[in-house]
Amino acid sequence: MFRDRLSARALASLDGLAGLEQLHTLNVSQNALCSLRGVAHLPALSNLYAARNYLSSAESVACSACLAGRYRSSAQWR
User: Fold this and answer.
1) How far apart are CA 23 and CA 20, in angstroms?
2) Which of 72, 27, 77 is nearest to 57 (CA)?
3) Are 9 and 32 in contact (CB under 8 A)?
4) Which residues are bridge partners to 27 per DSSP?
5) Contact 43, 70 (CB under 8 A)
């Protein structure tokens, strides 16, 4: 299982994740993300943690819909 923890790093974007096809768990909590664009291109992703970012509820719902059934998420909106 391949995991990556990018929490509390002041990330504003998830650009550059496209080459991580074996990534199962991604923790991007406590960043400055306004979008989760990029996670839909991670075929093995099953756990996404994105609490304490600047995500709108609409953005999170859209992401959940595109990845439905593939992952468990933890999201909290500001």
Assistant:
1) 6
2) 77
3) no
4) 5, 49
5) no
pLDDT tens by residue, 12-40: 888 888 888 898 888 989 899 988 888 87
pTM given for the model: 0.70
Structural tokens at position 14: 């998830």
* Token pair 């990330």 in the structure block, residue: 11
Residue 42: CB atoms within 10 A of its CB come to: 22
CA angle in degrees (0–180, nearest 5) for 18-72-58: 75
Spatial neighbors of 51 by CB under 8 A, at least 6 apart, are 29, 30, 74, 75, 76
| DSSP strands (E only) in 1-78 | 2-5, 23-27, 47-53, 72-77
